[in-house]
Amino acid sequence: MRTAICTAILIPALLVPPLCGQTRDQELARALVRRALEDTAGYHLLRELTALGHRLPGSPGAARAVRWAERTMTSLGLDNVTLQECPVPRWERGERETACILDERGGSGEPLAVAALGTSVGTAPGGISAEVLEVQSFEELEARGAEAAGKIIFFNRPMDPGTITTFAAYGGAVGQRVQGAVKAAEAGGVAALVRSVTTKYDNVPHTGTMSYRDGVPKVPAAAIGLIDADRLSAALHDDPHLRVRLSLSCRNYPDTTSYTVFGQITGWEYPREIIVIGGHFDSWDKGVGAHDDGAGCIQALEVLTLFQRLGIRPKRTVRAVFFMNEEMGLSGADVYGRWTASNGEDHIAGIEADRGALTPRGFYVTASPERLEKIQSWLPLLQEACIDWVKKGGSGGDVARIHEPEALVGYVPDVQRYFDFHHSANDVFAEIHPREMELGSAAMAILVYLLAEYGL
Amino acid sequence: MRTAICTAILIPALLVPPLCGQTRDQELARALVRRALEDTAGYHLLRELTALGHRLPGSPGAARAVRWAERTMTSLGLDNVTLQECPVPRWERGERETACILDERGGSGEPLAVAALGTSVGTAPGGISAEVLEVQSFEELEARGAEAAGKIIFFNRPMDPGTITTFAAYGGAVGQRVQGAVKAAEAGGVAALVRSVTTKYDNVPHTGTMSYRDGVPKVPAAAIGLIDADRLSAALHDDPHLRVRLSLSCRNYPDTTSYTVFGQITGWEYPREIIVIGGHFDSWDKGVGAHDDGAGCIQALEVLTLFQRLGIRPKRTVRAVFFMNEEMGLSGADVYGRWTASNGEDHIAGIEADRGALTPRGFYVTASPERLEKIQSWLPLLQEACIDWVKKGGSGGDVARIHEPEALVGYVPDVQRYFDFHHSANDVFAEIHPREMELGSAAMAILVYLLAEYGL
Q: How many A/B residue pairs have CB atoms within 8 Å?
């Protein structure tokens, strides 16, 4: 393999003496970065994918994307291209999705920008008209429980703007989206309206998962854009008895079947030692899941195509996995994970890219101290692709299901603007920056190359 | 001062024991970051500034901005608010700025998106109509010198996309913009048309400085958008004898006067030890210089206002300097630098922010190894604001004129998309991300606080 690489890299510059070990790895890292940035092949593949529409689990768009992925991996000459069946929920937004502040005569007054949360039940065709109780927390709702009966509960807690870690701020606010409907119903409310969990001050509602609980009535739940959340809050300040009408046509259908798609370059020396690199292939139905997580899947695929373009033959098997249905329950990851427990393969590493296609910053690693240290020793090579650090941290929900991996890795780009797009109509191809995306592909390609070459 | 800080920070949480040394500094760093992100005061100041229009040296917009800066610094209660006079060139673009590929009858055919380069001479009112010689380098122009006479020389070398350092790629391509007119004229050409030096594939021309040389005829020079550069190149491939008309009304006027503006918080213990933090206040006349370098100036100012908002009284003087006329010759920096040679002050550090208002990555430092090491020892504090590294490197043209500073520092954000905006109509306020800008202000505030507290 060393010979294979040296040949591929050095043929254009025959005067350069053959390189070995660290110098060769450095040259290879540089070549991966240059090739990614020059070709922007992943960027163009992502354009193709996102042109197919959104990829909500169980939707026609997701089915189109699965066929596209199989066709694309096959035409790229990957080994073992596989559609791995998994159950997925099926939920449809439908055409009717409106809210408004009612005027004095009960007519439609000021419209409010809303989007049903994923798996929410809909309303009757005429919608729900009710007074609104605004709260900042579940504790406040509990304290004001006597006021909640018959009302729309408006959870209006913003993300904490003061933390540098947008994912932490998301974690601190997303509970009202996930559990809001249950809490509202338990208090006697008739619906939940949730301030969008986003860092961007615009009026685009951000959807996402929510849950119901057995024994608690299922009430409809929707996200509201930030500008309208503030407008509604101001209007409630003026008139605490104002009424809002929320009308949603979304509904749940029986589970259906979809597929996780994967393909690989089989390791020439240790074919049963697997390095998985992947993202989730499904998206929300607002926008087209360009950052979340079309980009992560395509970056995973691009690691393999970069190896092809540079003639790199990995010692260990490198597998790009497009996990189906992360957003609504990780069912694709569950199936893949169960399979790895019994398929006779050893998973060296599972690398997940699911934080957007922004400029690389680092890698989070979950592994023994010795293995973490080994990956950290590669930092001078990873720096060729803007990676500044490797530290202990979480990977992502999909690869975390893999059976006994030696290491789990989360790719961490600059996430300051990630939640501007996340789960919303803002998550479109135009928000992808080719250099930022390609540097991510290159960073992961360097890491995967080193894992395939040296193991852990 | 320690008391002053502890009081300001800890009053809201009296149960927390008073903090000293490193723990106190860490708390202070966090408070600076949180306050910057929560208030986004700098972001809103930048909106005010950019609403005044562009700030081309010598233009009415620059004069408006100087008055705004003086008024703003004064109303913020800064000490020693000063307008420091400096000479500036005066060049105007004028209203006429067109190019087109002529049709067979010599009429205006396909328009080309162009923008005169700064200080370029204009054309006669009817423009220059000539055949075009496309070259990739000065070497190619020299080799093909016999073909150049009477032609428009089209320098079409792109930025190298394959390097991760966009500033290096810029450095590798900008020579054709700066020296293109001289090289064209020396070869007998009648004008220079230069592929825009940008990373964004659109049709927006990017302007910038260029130079003439005594004894070489002054020919007009303009940048052309990337899409039209490629279109022109393709058209030349089909018809090497096609003619282009370039018509520019730009012209140079006698030098005029403008001002570098500064204000400070005077150090309570060492008032004559100065930490300068600054950017350049002038901009190009395409766009409004939001990233380049309105943001850098406002971030410098925000360091001081963050100190005010948190009740931080620095031991050493912290001065925000808005240098005039970096783009057309650094005359403001020259005047400021000469002044520092004789004003009895010691400049501890000069920090420059002139790489865009994107997410922080690191600081470049020019200083003795001991001083560099001291600044590097503060990395755990700087990491609170997304700074991943402090290393040897260049600061920027403005602070580099300071007389015998102990350290020069360049603030380095993520620059992957910086040249998308740079020197063009893309450089507008809408391209500023509030979190990314504010994290930069906070990163510099932490560094400045430590310099003011501990010196070098």
A: 68
